[in-house]
## 1
Amino acid sequence: MLSDWLYIFQRLTPLSLLDISLVALVFFVLLYLVRGTQAVQLLRGVIILALFIALVGYALHLPAFSWLVQRAVPALLISIPIIFQPELRRALERLGRTGSWLGFTPREQIAIEKVIAETVQACQRLAERRHGALIVLERGTGLQDYIETGVLLNASVSSGLLQTIFFPNTMLHDGAAIIRGDQIVAAACILPLTSQFLDDQRLGLRHRAAIGITEATDAIAMVVSEERGTISIAHNGRMIRRLDSARLDTVLHAFYQPQFRGTWLSRLGNTLRPGRRTSRTESAMSEVKQ
């Protein structure tokens, strides 16, 4: 046994190590891109099915079953891109959002602080009055297709304007308001609804639309419940519910960070520069786990 390991290590070359490292990197990136999505369960099912087929077909030496599996493999390989189409699309979008790796300029950070402050204040006032609302913050993925379904505004973000948009019985209160940068680009926008099963059947169309848009894009969606007067936030197909204004501010600051914040590189940066953003990110992650 030891001799076999020695034989393997003797055959290793720098080029072999590079080859192994690249393969490991590919698998790491693929797993990183699908984490936190529905693809994790699908991938787990595929792995279990593959192990079962290998055990039954090859370990037990069943020629007919092995022949059937060999003929079915090409069809399965073709079906994988179809089954994982939403996840593959999101993964390619993440790879294309290279600008989000670099962080924000000071001017962009000031604009983000203003948008968050005005949005949090609007959500708080709307929740107190039980006025339903759906506010979407555009990030790296463009939302132009959804913007074109609504009424164009191109107005500066302000708490008063958001409260006016979602005042009951107005022309714009149905649908979503989409914010791009420091502008409310459009209101009364139509968003895709999620197809996943929701544990709480009392969640309405606004909540389903908020989850749906964050499944398809990297946007952040905030929902104010008209029935219960509660605030929720959706990101990456997940929803954090029953937030007050302070917790909403914390989660928004955490989700607005660059895409790769939380990886080993960003954790190293947080260690060298501890401060407000780190604590906010950790608090938001604890909210998601709850």
## 2
Amino acid sequence: MNATAVTVISQLILLPTSLLIFVGLGLVLMASNYRRGAWVLLLSGIGLLSAFSTPFAAHQLIRSLEVYPALDPSSVARTQAVVILGGGISHDQPEYAADVSNSATLERLRYAAFLHNHHELPILVTGGNPSGGEAEGWVMKRELESLFNVPVRWLEVESNNTAENAAFSWKILQADGVDTIALVTHAWHMPRAKRVFEQAGFTVVPAPTGFHTVDMKGIMNFIPQASYLNLSNIAIREWVGMAWYRLRR
């Protein structure tokens, strides 16, 4: 299955498209006089869309993935390198006249720079160009070195997904005898990332970042908001991704 087909299928499964399909099918059934089934689909689609847009539901979903705690500094002593996973880039930003890291990648770079400054571990950045343009790895390397003054020793720019991040990073680091790493990615992404990096051969010390620790207060916790629909979608995408990886294995 090519990358375009995977992208289309994933978008049909994820929010909001999957729930809009429910609503659309409900409208079709309503027009065809299958009113009972129509109401089930309409109310399910609208109800779930509303629920997934609330801070309460979104936080419950995303925290179900944040199972690895923050890195214990004492565990860093047994690692040989820091590996940073790309989280996406923003293309052709006019103020920079270049591609730049998106907010997710920048969070990971910031934490990796923090780890390097405290523990002086060498760094590998990994990320290809699944969305076109410059490879994530090149952008990450440039920004770590120019913005954070942190050197990058190894660069991987061919991967298009987390499994390839792991496999291609293993080929690079194995040549230098590195097999125990501190893996930097978002806390919600760590379960899937740790699994595939261990399957590639690494001993992984999780170094998650970007935890969701602040709850919305009072009634606002149950009022639908667009940003929380996106957060729910991130969590659902991760659960679907983990299921897909297990099926492929």
## 3
Amino acid sequence: MNQKIKIKAAILEKTNRELVLKNIYHDSILSKNQILIKIQYTGICGSQLGEINGIKGKDNFLPHLLGHEATGIVKKVSKEIKDFKKNDKVILHWQKNSKNDSRNPIYYDERSKKINAGWVTTFNNYAVVSKNRVSHLPKKISMKEGVLFGCSLTTSYGSIFKDFKINLKKKNKILITGCGMIGQTIITLLNNSNKQIYALENNLKKIKFIKKNFKKINFLNRKKSVMKNYDYIYETTGNSNIIEQSYNSLSKKGKLVLIGVPKFNENVNINTLGINYGKRIVGSYGGAAVPKKDIIKILSYIKKNKVNLKKLYVGPFNFKKINLIINKMFNGQIITKPILRLW
């Protein structure tokens, strides 16, 4: 007999408003390729801040759940799933391991009103997740560190090594625009390589963080003239003016990776002649990551380069403080990945 599951969740009911904390329910019946997971830790990504602010325009799915990076423990799997079992420790990620999406889970509140959700949500202490958004947690990675593999590490690694595969043996000149969570992670992954690395940022806390942790980084800010002739630029701000400036700062055959997302009603103006002569632009969609395969590659890379993951997150914080943490992110007071504890 199936018994409905009581779930504590943070729900986006209206854009530009705080999330609503309340109990919701699921009937615990799993459809094909669905996994029920008890979430231990979740991260908050810039994408969620964008959703809350309605950066992509009208949200047609309100009210809905949020979050796309977490770690947890498998509690139940649909009958055809053989490669996950109860009590497995897992990473939840928004990138797909395969094309086989499950149905969207159905949640409802105490008044039986439907709460919409995608194939993975993590601002809820129990989540029904599509199998293709779940990977096993490596034994050498803690549950808190594992959250980073749900988005920022896979996106950053893919942006460097998949969107435009960089040659680490060549002494490239690199610019990272924006030193938020993705910018910090890109810098972390490239810091030990033989590169000329520049960072563009205005937030004083982020500047201090970069200077403290990355001694070799050449720091710029928007008030100074940005240098030219970069071989690679990783654009993480989504600011239209900075995107234009980045394109104009490329070398003749330089590559621009667009990671940040502009507002839905903003346009970018560039002269495309540079593309004819060899400049390249690519929009990164999660670094084209396939987490099941790429998590192993990232583990190998961070071990070889002695990457310290602990400096990339802060917390864990109590889940009840989620709106306070989000406000501190909006205000630039929290600059690294905030980790929330669901239990």
## 4
Amino acid sequence: MSVRRSRVAVAAALLTLLALLPIAAAPVLAKDHASAEQTRILNYWTKERIANAKPRDFVRLANGKFEMAKSSPSRGKPGGGGTGGNNVLGASWTGGGDVLKQTGKVLFTMDSGDYICTGTVIADATNNSRSIVVSAGHCAYDAADGGFARNWTFYPDFDTNGTYTCAQSKYGCWTATSLSVHYGFANSGGFNTQATTHDWSFASIGNGGFTNQLAETAVGAMPKSFSTPAVNSQTFNFGYPAAGKYHGYDLTYCSDQVFLDPLNSNLTLGVDCDMTGGSSGGPWLGSFNSTTGSGVVDSVNSYGYSGVKKEYGPKFNSQTTATFNAATTATQNTIVGNAP
């Protein structure tokens, strides 16, 4: 009788162990899958793919319609360099500091091909298992071109040594685990006025880079504000333009006073600037300190006008806050909010 009870007890113990095994193994499998996907994405971005990726920027034509800007051959670096002067229309940023480390190239794939934009690591008070990169909405989603971007990768400090691959970079690269955009952008029916007023995105990125750390640990994070900067306030906007006189791996900046876009019903912000395709998603920094290279992100590069040396960005607001908050907990690509 005791032998039988012993066998029953052993069998019960084995069943309990087998029942628990999937629970214990699940996090490991999920982690392995995430690691495999990260490796796949990083391997995707060969030197040739990065070099051939196209800027994804939009311009408004004389008839009021928007279209994707046509890339023109680059001709080298912009003239001169700067460390923070006012009224700069486009110059190499030579001041170093936080903006150089925390702003980087964004690489991603849509159905129509591989593209580049600009993004910035921003402060995330939740301080959990992810960092957040802000960029333009059209650098993360296009309903007519496959929906959410794929192979989304953040390459900080892209111009340190002029190399292309992540393996040759200073910090390495981080891949997105999810992308978040607002309903007002995703359901705008194309790049139009509604899209411009919601043209932001937030990428959630896990551990990565050469140190397998959060990006905010490896390179830091820029402060943010989801309030609209005042008209006539000074802003510095940054990006990696890759057309015309720009070659795409030189952090470039403009500096001027903020104004409203009257041709867009004053719904978006403008600044004098001649940056070209590739600068989309780059940060607008208020309260900028040229010594430390730090400021407060309060908009991003969104669109321009054909033949006009100005760049425009959305007004951050409560809908931006909602999109950001969703990104801090998202486990999959997310469209936030309802019809505006």
